[in-house]
Design goal:
The complex is a heterodimer of chains A (about 270) and B (about 600).
Chain A (H helix, E strand, L loop, with lengths): L2 H17 L15 H7 L4 H6 L5 H11 L6 H14 L3 H14 L5 H12 L3 H14 L4 H13 L3 H21 L4 H20 L3 H14 L4 H13 L3 H17 L9
Helix pairs in contact in A: 4-5, 5-6, 5-7, 6-7, 7-8, 7-9, 8-9, 9-10, 9-11, 10-11, 11-12, 12-13, 13-14
Chain B lengths: L10 H11 L1 E4 L32 E3 L1 H4 L24 E3 L8 E4 L15 E5 L3 E3 L4 E2 L2 E3 L11 E8 L8 E7 L3 E6 L3 E4 L1 H4 L7 E7 L8 E6 L12 E3 L2 E3 L12 E5 L5 E3 L14 E7 L8 E6 L5 E5 L13 E3 L1 H4 L15 E4 L8 E4 L8 E6 L3 E4 L15 E7 L8 E6 L8 H4 L8 E6 L2 E4 L15 E7 L8 E6 L5 E5 L6 E7 L13 E7 L2 E7 L12 E5 L9 E6 L5 E7 L3 E6 L3
The chains are: A mainly alpha (about 270), B mainly beta (about 600).
């Protein structure tokens, strides 16, 4: 292994293991990690690469280095490459690599989860649904896959199924959170699922139920502007002007702290 | 509409060939009665007599056959600056009051000569011709010079309104560079009255709309501005998904919009500051419409901003009218939920459509956005709140890969449910699926209403227009061939203007236009009116609005569909004029066009 590459891997590995987070496979709706599942599924040299996925070309170069090693597993490389593109929100490219990984190693289920999100963000709802279901066959307790299935079912107009998906996501992620209450990512996962469950309840419509979910979500992740926005809307519709104003102020305050990005529009 | 013959070569080719074969002669009043036998038939066109129905969403692209030959100018291709990619609109209006729709295209310019492009074009409709296949078709001729129309700046948005209530619709053109108000002199010629009317502005204006904002009966004008931009000194480049692209709009300075109050005589006063328009942050305005969203009898202004929160200007709480402003306004977009999507995220709003998606009579708002983002449907909850119901209605995920511009809400298949037609095309010519999850050229997207959801139409029976890829921008609705159903005219970047004639096999349509001919009436087309149409106990509601779509002016009319039914059926109309006056009209016949004269 080249010295520079080794150094990068070592430092990244330390970071990755230090925070116990593999942040490389993020996505809009669920940028929380599938820490254990993904990390355990990879050769050790690839784990820190995944953590560096946001570095794009640099991460891809590291994968190429890995590929040159004896015994390098191509399906893992494809998967990590997919994650680097997914991190850049380049879902077409990510999808291609996830599908290659699945072709090379059909029993390796991790790519299904991420393929689900790639398909979702490419507008392929049936493809997303199938991918999440495939992953859940192998990992039925993966809350984030239930979350992905939930947003897909919601877009497909299957409100009953979406509600159950999100409740499954909450249950699974909350169980993990109970094991490690200080783990902020787990709290965020639960919070996000509660926000999406609130979307379903609003559509039914069940304003009280939605408000309850949003208030719990805000407690779990008070820095999430989206939650406060939705809460302000629900409270306003319920006639709680003061509560709505408070939530809106919180929302606007959080948004003001955020640097605007192209993701906010074009 | 009757079923039409099919062809093994496809309905689009078949129709074009049939039309190329012969026109059966002009209807009375048509200026061009020359048979078109000399027009070459498209290669492979083999008209068939085999009877078969066209799809319910079938359109035929007939610009050439209609005589509307124009290629727009929008800088260069591929574009190198943001000014080149915003496109330009068009207007469908009866400029000479002869009963049919004419077409105005302001047209753009080039970076080398941004203030002097090839100029606008006006196409007069000579009235519907009857084609060989028995279907009507408009016939246009270029009337630009004859009408004395001169506008050669970089045109963007267009609004139509009779600003001085002389009975003829005038044109406002928003531009990069000087805007223009072109007064219609009795249906014959146009005169540039920009300066004398007080609507001179040289910033980059985009969307524009007429409406009675201050409630005095005449047509006020709202003009959205985009951003500070000098093509001689373009901003640094940017990247999108890692790909180098031209700079903007992100990071560029927005501009304040303008509200012009009509003094009642077709001249205007800029009341932007006095009425609160300047109180919002300078923005990247693109889309605008003026509509009574809370059904309180007063018109609100909805402004779509690119990459920033949208605005909803409504009555300023506790504010009193002053000598400088008859109706103080304040932005309540955020409080209402309309400013951002359901996640609280500002979007790159471009196109706007107003429709009643849930049949409750309240106007809902649909907006189009950039790629890797969805369109957004805000459902109106009693006028005060808007809920993002994009996903619930099936309008979210399928729209993600597209850069979406003009939005047309209309019951194209006349089944009694409004559909949504969106015209697409990427901003960046470099776009590929591999690099940006989008292609540079993109097809339109038609969402057919199907009960509680919309379904993306992919049926080949709709014709080739739905799968052909373009870099489209704007579009406008209007019944060009006077057959009662809505047709569409589309503009793209440096592309031929397309005329999509609605010739599908569908239900009964009814087009309702309004006319206020009372002495002293100052909004003759009833812009801002709400029309309910009731048949068999079911009421549909539409609005006659300025703005909407994207940078364009659609026909000032409401289109209804009623599906199949008895020839004896009649429709009861309830018109709520912009001043709140309600008028009931019984006995409208589906399958036709009707103009309702205001009663009192």
């Amino acid at each position: 292994m080249p010295a520079a590459f080794s150094t990068l891997l070592d430092s990244s590995l330390r970071v990755a293991l230090g925070v116990a987070v593999l942040a490389g496979c993020g996505h809009d709706a669920s940028d929380a990690p599938l820490t254990a599942m993904v990390r355990q599924s990879l050769d050790e040299p690839l784990r820190p690469v995944l953590a560096r996925a946001s570095e794009g070309d640099a991460a891809r170069a590291l994968v190429e280095e890995y590929r040159k090693q004896p015994g390098a597993l191509a399906y893992q490389a494809e998967f990590v490459l997919g994650c680097t593109y997914q991190q850049e929100k380049n879902y077409s490219a990510a999808k291609e690599h996830f599908e290659r990984a699945l072709l090379l190693a059909p029993s390796y289920s991790a790519p299904w989860h991420f393929l689900g999100f790639a398909n979702y963000y490419l507008g392929d709802l049936p493809g997303a649904h199938h991918a999440f279901e495939e992953h859940l066959k192998a990992s039925p307790d993966e809350g984030e896959s239930w979350f992905g299935l939930g947003i897909t079912d919601f877009d497909l107009g299957r409100l009953t199924e979406a509600e159950q998906d999100f409740r499954n996501a909450i249950q699974r992620n909350d169980a993990l959170r109970q094991q490690d209450p200080q783990h902020r990512a787990r709290a965020r996962e639960v919070s996000k699922a509660r926000v999406r469950l609130a979307d379903v309840l609003l559509a039914k419509p069940d304003l009280d139920g939605a408000r309850s979910q949003l208030e719990q979500a805000a407690q779990l992740w008070p820095e999430q502007a989206e939650t406060w926005f939705k809460l302000s809307q629900v409270r306003a519709q319920q006639g709680d002007a003061a509560g709505a104003a408070q939530a809106q102020q919180t929302y606007l305050g959080l948004k003001a702290k955020q640097a605007p990005t192209r993701g906010e529009g074009s | 509409m009757s079923a039409r013959p099919a062809s093994s070569t496809g309905p689009h080719v078949r129709r074009a060939a049939a039309l190329a074969g012969a026109l059966l002669g002009a209807l009375p009043g048509c200026g061009d009665s020359q048979p078109s036998a000399s027009r070459p038939a498209p290669a492979g066109a083999t008209p068939s007599l085999a009877p078969a129905a066209l799809g319910r969403f079938h359109f035929s692209e007939l610009a050439a056959e209609c005589g509307l030959n124009m290629v727009t100018t929008n800088g260069r291709s591929p574009a190198t600056q943001i000014l080149e990619v915003k496109g330009g609109g068009l207007a469908l209006f009866d400029r000479d009051d002869d009963g049919d729709l004419d077409v105005f295209v302001p047209n753009g310019a080039t970076l080398e000569s941004p203030l002097h492009g090839p100029g606008c074009r006006l196409f007069d409709n000579d009235g519907p011709q009857r084609a060989a296949d028995g279907e009507p078709m408009p016939r246009f001729h270029d009337a630009t010079a004859a009408a004395g129309l001169r506008f050669d700046c970089w045109g963007m948005g267009t609004a139509v309104g009779d600003v001085d209530a002389d009975g003829f619709d005038d044109l406002f053109v928003a531009a990069w560079g000087p805007d223009a108000l072109l007064h219609n002199d009795g249906g014959r010629t146009f005169t540039d009255v920009t300066a004398s009317a007080g609507v001179s502005d040289t910033r980059w204006s985009t969307g524009c709309a007429f409406g009675d904002v201050d409630g005095d009966g005449d047509l006020d004008l709202y003009v959205a501005t985009y951003l500070v931009f000098d093509p001689a000194h373009p901003p640094p480049g940017d990247t999108f998904k890692g790909v180098p692209v031209f700079g903007g709009p992100f990071g560029l300075q927005g501009e304040p919009d303008m509200l012009y109050a009509n003094r009642g005589d077709g001249t205007f006063e800029d009341v932007s500051a006095a009425c609160g328009i300047d109180a919002v942050p300078p923005s990247h305005g693109l889309g605008v419409t003026i509509v009574d969203l809370d059904l309180d009898g007063r018109q609100e202004i909805f402004v779509g901003n690119d990459s920033m929160a949208d605005f909803l200007f409504d009555d300023a709480p506790d504010a009193q009218a002053t000598s400088g402003c008859a109706r103080p306004l304040a932005d309540r977009g955020m409080a209402s939920g309309l400013a951002v999507n359901g996640d609280g995220r500002a979007q790159a709003t471009m196109g706007i459509a107003v429709l009643d998606v849930d049949g409750d009579g309240w106007p809902d708002v649909f907006t189009t956005n950039f790629s890797s983002d969805t369109n957004t449907l805000h459902v109106n909850r009693g006028g005060r709140f808007f809920e993002d119901r994009t996903s619930v209605y099936g309008l979210g995920a399928p729209s993600r890969p597209y850069v979406k511009w003009a939005a047309l809400a209309c019951d194209f298949d006349a089944d009694g449910q409004e559909d949504l037609l969106i015209f697409d095309g990427h901003t960046y010519a470099q776009a590929t699926l591999a690099s940006m999850d989008s292609e540079a050229l993109e097809p339109p997207q038609l969402y057919a209403r199907d009960g509680a959801r919309f379904a993306l139409v992919t049926d080949p029976a709709a014709g080739t227009w739905l799968s052909e890829k373009h870099m489209d921008r704007s579009a406008a609705l209007g019944d060009l061939d006077a057959d009662g159903d809505p047709d569409v005219v589309v503009t793209g970047l440096n592309a031929p203007v397309r005329v999509l004639i609605n010739d599908g096999t569908h239900g009964r349509s009814l087009t309702v236009a309004l006319h206020d001919g009372r002495p002293g009436a100052k909004n003759p087309r009833g812009l801002g009116s709400r029309i309910g149409a009731t048949l068999g106990g079911r009421t549909q509601v539409r609005w006659i609005l300025s703005g909407t779509a994207y940078l364009s002016a659609s026909e000032a009319a409401a289109h209804f569909g009623f599906g199949a039914g008895s020839a004896e059926d009649t429709v009861d109309l309830l018109i709520t004029w912009p001043d709140g006056h309600e008028q009931r009209v019984a006995g409208a016949k589906p399958g036709a066009r009707t103009t309702v004269e205001r009663d009192s």
